[in-house]
Amino acid sequence: MKVLRSKKKEFSEMIEKHQAIIHRVTMVYTNGPADREDLFQEICLQLWRSYPNFREEAKFSTWMYRVALNTAISNVRKKNRDIHFEQLLDNDRMETESSDEKEQIQLLYRAISKLNRIDKALILLWLDEKSYDEIASILGISKTNVSVKLVRIKRKLEEMIFTQE
Amino acid sequence: MNDKKLKDMWNKAETLMEASDYKSSSIEQFISGRSNDTTQKIKTMIIFDLVLKAISLCVLAIDFVLYFGTTNVMSVTIAGIVLLLPLIFMQYKMLNRFSEAADNGQNTRDKLAYMLTYLKTKFFTTLLSVSGTYLFGFIAGSLVYFYTAYGYVRPLDGVDFVVFLTFILIGIAFNFFVNQGQVKYHIKHLEICLNDLNDKNLELVSENIELQRKRDRSNKILLALVLVIGILLLVIVFKNIGFIIK
C-alpha cells in the first residue's frame, strides 16, 4: 500500500512537470472548460494505467503524447456541442491583447476545431515542433504520409482562416 | 499564411491559456478516480462477469456438498462446474487480450486497429459468455434457496417454469442488446478514425478481421452450445424432478 502511494506521488509529480502536453491536447479536442477538465482527468487516469507498460526507450513526452492523443481520439461522445471561444480562452488575459490578435487566435481555434480527430493530432504535434519521425512514430503512419497530410491540413487551415477573415 | 505565422499564433494562444495548472495533489486524485471511457466500461464488464462466474462456481461447489447423496442434483452441479471452468478460463484470456488492445501506450494506428479487430471479432463471443453467467448464477442460487427453504428441490409447475425462463431470457437478451448497441457506435467511430489516418488502413484491418472471424467460429459454436446445455440443466433441475434430501 505504501509502495503504491509513493509510486502515485512520484508519477503525479512527473505529470505535473509535463502537464502542458495534456493541456494542449485538451484544448484542441474539447468544447469548453467542463469538457476540458473531464478529458484532462481521463488522460491522467489512462497515463497512470499505461505507465507499467512504459518503456524507457521512448521519450517520456512522446509516450505522454501517445496516450493523451489515443485517449482524446477514442473519447466518444454522442453530443457534439459547438465550440465557444469565449469559454475556451481566458477572457481576463485576452483583454490585454489587441482585438486583431484576439480575433486571429479565435480564427485559428475555430479552424482547428473543424478538422477531424486525426488531422487535429497531426497539426497539434506539428505546432508543438515535433519532427516528422516523432509524429510518424506517435501516430503509426509513414513519414511520407505525415508530410502529405500536413501539407493538406495546413492548406485547409489557411483557407478556413482567410475565408472567415 | 506561412508556417511561422501559424506557429506564432499557436504559441500566443498557448501563453494565454496557461491559467489552469494542476498541482500534483490534484493529479493524484485524478488517477484514483473513475474512468468514463467506453473501453474501460467494457473492461469493467468483463472483470465483473469474471467475478460473477467465480462466485457461481463456488456456489455450485457448495450446492454439491449440500445435496451430497442426491445423484441427480449432484450431476447437475458437476455439469455446471465443468461448463463454468473453461468459460472462466476463456473469459480470463479475453480480458488479457482486451487489455492489450485497449493499451493507450501503443501508436494510434495500432490502438485503433486492435480495438476495432477485438470489438468486431471477440466482442460477440464475450457477450455470449457474459450472457451465460445469468443461467449458471440462477441455477446455483436457486439450489441454495430451495435447500434453505424446503430442504429439497421443489418441482416447479408449468407456469412457474415459464415465468422463470422468461425472466432469464429477457435478462440475457437485454444485457446482450444494450452492450451491443453501445459498442456499435464505438465501432463506427473507430472505423472513421482509421480511415482518416490512412485510406488503406481500414481495408487491411477488415481483411484481418475476416481471418479472425473464421478462426473464432468454433469458439462461438462452443459457447452457443454451453448456453443451450445451461438451459437444459435448468429444465432438468426445475421441470422434471423433485429431489428429496435423504
TrEMBL record, chain A:
GO MF, one example: DNA binding
Keyword Repeat in record: no
Cited SUPFAM superfamilies: Sigma2 domain of RNA polymerase sigma factors, Sigma3 and sigma4 domains of RNA polymerase sigma factors
UniProt GO BP: DNA-templated transcription initiation
KW Transcription regulation (keyword) present: yes
Span of domain RNA polymerase sigma factor 70 region 4 type: 106-157
PANTHER family: RNA POLYMERASE ECF-TYPE SIGMA FACTO, RNA POLYMERASE ECF-TYPE SIGMA FACTOR
Keywords, alphabetical: Sigma factor, Transcription, Transcription regulation
Residue ranges constituting the RNA polymerase sigma-70 region domain according to the UniProt record: 14-81
Similarity-based family: Belongs to the sigma-70 factor family. ECF subfamily.
Entry protein name: RNA polymerase sigma70 factor
UniProtKB/TrEMBL annotation, chain B:
Transmembrane residue ranges: 46-67, 73-90, 123-147, 159-178, 221-245
Name under which the protein is recorded: Uncharacterized protein
Keywords carried by this UniProt record: Membrane, Transmembrane, Transmembrane helix
